[in-house]
Amino acid sequence: MARPNEQQIGTRCVQAGYTPGNGEPRQIPIVQSTTFKYATGEAMGALFDLQESGYFYTRLQNPTNDMVAAKICALEGGTAGMLTSSGQAANFFSVFNICETGGHVVACSAIYGGTFNLLSHTLAKMGIELTFVAPDCTDEELDAAFRPNTKCVFGETIANPALAVLDIERFAKAAHAHGVPLIVDNTFPTPVNCRPIEWGADIVTHSTTKYMDGHGVAVGGAIVDSGNFDWMAHADKFPGLTTPDESYHGIVYAEQFGQGGAFITKATSQLMRDFGSIQSPQNAFYLNLGLESLHVRMPQHCKNGQALAEFLSNHPKVTSVSYPNLPGDKYYDLAQKYLPNGGCGVVSLCVDGGRAAAERFMAALRIAAIETHVADARTCCLHPASTTHRQMSDEELVAAGVAPSMVRLSCGLESTEDLLADVAQALDCV
Ligand SMILES: *Cc1c(COP(=O)(O)O)cnc(C)c1O
User: Fold this and answer.
1) Could you report the per-residue pLDDT of 210-232, keeping only the tens digit for each?
2) What spacing in Å lies between the alpha carbon of 88 and ligand 1's midpoint?
3) Residue 4 has pLDDT above 60, yes or no
4) Ligand 1 centroid from CA 64, angstroms
5) For ligand 1, atom 4, which residue shows the shortest CA distance?
6) Cβ distance 176 to 197 under 8 Å?
7) 295-428, what's its fold?
8) 372 Cβ contact list (under 8 Å, min separation 6)
9) Is 270 helix (H, G, I), strand (E, B) or coil?
C-alpha cells in the first residue's frame, strides 16, 4: 500500500489521518471528553513530564483533533501538525513559539487584517518588533529588513484580501540566509493548490475556517511543521527549542523530539497549556468533513473565480480587477509558478465611482451575500476598508494592497452562469 505521503492529494483529503482497525468506527470518532483515565498516578505523571505520549486533558491534546491535524499535516507534506481554535491562534502560536520579548519579525505587508493587527500591535505590546516588506520588494530591501534579533519571516501564499502571491522560494532563501524559518499562511490556496513546504517554507499555518471547512460551520486553525528547519544549527537564536525547559524537568525539545517534532511539541505543551486555544473535538469533526471534499470543491471555486475575473476585466464599470490567475495580473507570473492549477475563488474589484458605487454594487447583488466571511460554499462579498481593515490608516491600506473602494468577492460553489448573471445585473444597478 502506498504510504500517505506518496498518495495523490485527493486520496489524502479523504483517507489520511485515521485508519480504523477491525470493527472500529469508519468515520473518525468525536472524543467528547475533557479528560482521560489512568490506573496509577505514576502513569499519568510520565505523560505530564512528556516521557510518554498519551492523552490526559483536552486543553493540550484530544484524539479527534490529532486525527484531523494528522490529515492536514499529510496534505501539506509536513512532519507534525496541530489544530488551534482559530486561524488567529495558529498564526500567533507559530510566531510566539520561536519569537519572544526582544525578538523581531520580518513580515510581508500584504496580509490579512487580523494578522496585521496581531503582528504590528499586539506582538508589539509583548516586546516583539516588526518590519514589513512589500510582497514585490527587491532582494536588497528584503535583505535589509533583517536584524540580529530576527526570529522568523511571515507571509501569505495568496494575501487576503490583496491577492498578492508570495514568492515563497525567494522569501525562504532570504530567511534561511539569515538563519531563520519562513512561516507561510496557506489559507487561500489550501494544499490542494499549493504546498509551500515544497518551495522552502518551514512552518505552514491555516485558518481552517475558510476553504478547509468550506461550509461556514466552524472557526478553526492549524499549524504544520515541515521538519526541515535545523533548530540546533541556529541554537543561539532559538533557546526555547534548544535549551532546557524548566517546566518539563529540563527537556530540550530539539533533542528529545528531533527536528521534525520539536516545534509542534513545544507549541502544544507550552503555548496550548498556557493559552488554551484548543479547537473543540466537535469542530474538528466538522473540519474533517470539509477536508474530505476539499480537492473536489477547490476546482469549482477556482473555475468560478477565473470566469468572474475574466468577465469583470472586460466590464466598462469596473476600473480594476485583481485575480492572480488572470493574464495581465501583477502576480500572474508568480501564480503560474506557484498556483498552476488555480489559486482560489476570491476576486477583488474596484467599481467606477468609488466607495459609494461599491456600496450600491454590493447592495444589488442577489446571490452574493454581504458577510464578514470568505472562502465559503456560498458566494459572499465584503468591503474590506470599512470592515476587516477598518483600523488601518490610508497609508497602511495602500501597503496592504487594499484600495478604499475595493470589493472582495468570494466565489462559492454555485453554477458559474448564475454567478456571472448576478454580478452583471448588480453592475447595471451602479
Ligand atoms: C481568516 C484568516 C485568518 C484568521 O483566521 P480566523 O480563523 O478567522 O481566526 C488568518 N489568515 C488568513 C489568510 C485568513 O483569511
Assistant:
1) 999 999 999 999 999 999 999 99
2) 6
3) no
4) 22
5) 87
6) no
7) Aspartate Aminotransferase, domain 1 (3.90.1150)
8) 382, 387, 388
9) helix
Query: Given phi > 0 = left and psi -120 to 50 = alpha, else beta, which region is 220?
Result: beta
pLDDT (tens digit per residue) in 125-146: 999 999 999 999 999 999 999 9
Report d(CA 363, CA 135) in Å as an integer: 32
User: What pLDDT does residue 323 have?
Assistant: 98
pLDDT at 16 over 90: yes
Domain spanning 33-289, CATH class: alpha beta
**Residues 6+ away with beta carbon under 8 Å from 349:** 312, 318, 320, 321, 322, 406, 407, 409
Q: Whose CA is nearest to atom 2 of ligand 1?
A: 207
Burial 269-299 (b: 16+ CB within 10 A, else e): bbbbeebebbbbbebbbbbbbbbebbbebbe
* Nearest residue by C-alpha to atom 12 in ligand 1: 112
Q: How far is the CA of 210 from the centre of ligand 1 (A)?
A: 8
- Which residues, judged by CB distance below 6 Å to any ligand atom, belong to the binding site of ligand 1? 86-88, 91, 112, 114-115, 156, 160, 185, 187, 207, 209-210, 219, 221
Of 18-22, 109-113, 338-342, the one with minimum mean pLDDT is 109-113
Handedness of CA 379, 111, 221, 325 (dihedral sign): positive
Report the separation in Å between the CA atom of 70 and the middle of ligand 1, taken as the mean of its atom positions: 20
Query: What is the Å distance from ligand 1's center to 186 Cα?
Result: 10
**Distance between CA 383 and CA 204 in Å, rounded?**
27
Give me ligand 1 centre to Cα 337, in Å: 24
Q: What are the pLDDT digits (tens) for 30-47?
A: 999 999 999 898 888 888
Q: What cell does 206 get? A: 491555516
Residue nearest (by alpha carbon) to ligand 1 atom 7: 87
Q: What pairing do the DSSP bridges indicate for beta strands 182-185 and 203-207?
A: parallel
* Per-residue pLDDT at 392: 78
Q: What is the percentage of the chain residues whose pLDDT exceeds 70?
A: 99
Q: Domain ranges for the chain, please list them.
A: 33-289, 295-428
Q: Which atom of ligand 1 is nearest to the CA of 91?
A: 10
